[in-house]
């Protein structure tokens, strides 16, 4: 096996999942994560289709199922908290739903004994030469690796270093989302309550067996200029956009100030003609972010990691062959998942009162519409838009 030493940037979902499979195939992965420790917080993420089969092959499906959110219906309410329409659990929660932080912890625990994790550091330079890549870090000493993988999310550092500026491959869908943990002050029991005003959606759903809740703020907007690292500035953007909005909004905005895990980003997709350059390759959101509106980002990360590691093993570590095969295997799946997000925005964040009424009417009528099954099966179809190969594990 050539190219044994693999450096992975990012320890969320794609990074630890890739480390898991690389170990299975006899490689020696190292994971570097910018955060000082595993990032625990996060929203609920869904699994659909092929990703569940990958979890099963990892032997982790049972653990993920045990951590499932067990979310029920979502009720859309008016300003006085009166139900307008109820949508069933499957619309929001896929086949299996888990908090991103819990998933990350399961993947980390499954790998930490045989994988080197370096927290609190970040790659600053990558110099490729005939036999490998010299990597420099913000804090650690320079090191040699055979291959480097960017699993560092939508704003991937590895991608910027190797593929150039993010603006060339990031496609904003015209929405922003903020999400954070709040007290479960509405006493929700495994359910969600969402409220809309034109161009804005505010949602709360209970989490961790109702001991807390996640608040979610979505708004439609042209591209905003802000600093990705400046949380205070991002909080102010959310406050400004939701000032004067009804229902529970002001209480949730107040709770946002105390939230330990405030998150804010654009709903964006990453589109690249190639996921690799030389000895550097991308996986997960760094390579093909589908945007939260697709509900498929975690599935893509888990399946992408499985395929990338499998193709490297099948090519006995020959990165040129493996990286080409990885893209060929996964591109149809990526396209199907990314397509899902594009039409979803108007349904989730209706732009006008007329659209809001139209959306609610559709949700009310959906159980009686002949094409209901077709609509409901769309996400599952995307989740199954790949036939998983069997990749033989390295002999123990
Ligand atoms: C609100 C919201 C809801 C979502 N809902 C769903 C859903 O229902 N279903 C679904 O499938 N997906 C969902 N997603 C998407 C899903 O969370 C991501 O697609 C998935 O987590 C991708 O994982 P990743 O490991 O590729 O990237 P990320 O989870 O973004 O992880 C990147 C990691 O890299 C680290 N990092 C960043 N920069 C550096 C650096 N310079 N050096 C080292 N490390 C670095 C970060 O700290 C992080 O740990 C949702 C996303 C959001 C925002």
Report on this model:
One of its GO terms (molecular function) is FAD binding. It holds the Pfam family FAD_binding_3. The chain is of the alpha/beta class. It has a single domain, classed as 3-Layer(bba) Sandwich (FAD/NAD(P)-binding domain), CATH 3.50.50.60. The chain has 13 helices and 18 strands. It has helices at residues 14-24, 50-58, 61-66, 89-93, 100-109, 157-163, 231-242, 249-258, 285-288, 297-314, 319-348, 353-365, 372-383; strands at 5-9, 28-33, 44-47, 74-77, 83-87, 96-99, 116-119, 123-129, 132-137, 143-145, 147-150, 170-182, 192-197, 200-207, 212-220, 263-270, 276-277, 280-282. Strands 5-4-13-14-15-12-16 form a seven-stranded mixed sheet, with helices on both faces. The longest helix is centred in the last third of the chain and has 30 residues, at 319-348. The protein is globular, with a radius of gyration of 21 Å. The chain binds flavin-adenine dinucleotide.
